[in-house]
């Protein structure tokens, strides 16, 4: 008979694991890229993509996207944790424009406005 050890998590470990599962099932985080007619890029992060795109398109918040009329969603990527999304956003922001454009073209070669579907 094989001897196998059974690891029983403590109540705290089990609660934390359950909390992570609940968060992952209910929360999504998005890294997205918007552009305008001049092909200026904006990279952002949100936990409510529909709301955030609405804010950009309707120029609700003062800032870069309002100033440069950046309102066309051309890339998005979903994450289950804010840490992963923030890490990806920072990584993409550090890339050259050429590398960002390669990413977008692989995902959306025609640069369609992806927000038209929601």
Structure at a glance:
The protein is α+β, with helices and mostly antiparallel strands and 118 residues long.
CATH architecture label: 3-Layer(aba) Sandwich
Largest sheet: 3 strands, antiparallel
Describe the strand arrangement of the main beta sheet, using strand numbers: 2-1-3
Helix/strand class = alpha+beta
Mean pLDDT value: 86
* Helix and strand element order: HEEHHEHH
- Helix content estimate: 40-55%
CATH class: Alpha Beta
Structural domains: how many: 1
What is the H level of CATH, i.e. the homologous superfamily? GIY-YIG endonuclease
Shape: globular
**What is the total tally of β strands?**
3
How large is the count of helical segments?
Answer: 5
Radius of gyration (Å): 19 Å
Strand share of the residues? 15-25%
Low-confidence runs? none
| Distance N to C terminus | 58 Å
Account of the 3D structure:
- With 118 residues, the protein is α+β, with helices and mostly antiparallel strands.
- It has a single domain, classed as GIY-YIG endonuclease.
- It contains 5 helices and 3 strands.
- The chain has a 3-stranded antiparallel sheet, with helices on both faces.
- A hairpin with a 6-residue loop joins strand 1 and strand 2.
- The longest helix is centred in the first third of the chain and has 16 residues.
- The radius of gyration is 19 Å and the shape is globular.
- The chain starts with 10 loop residues before the first helix and ends in an 11-residue tail after the last helix.
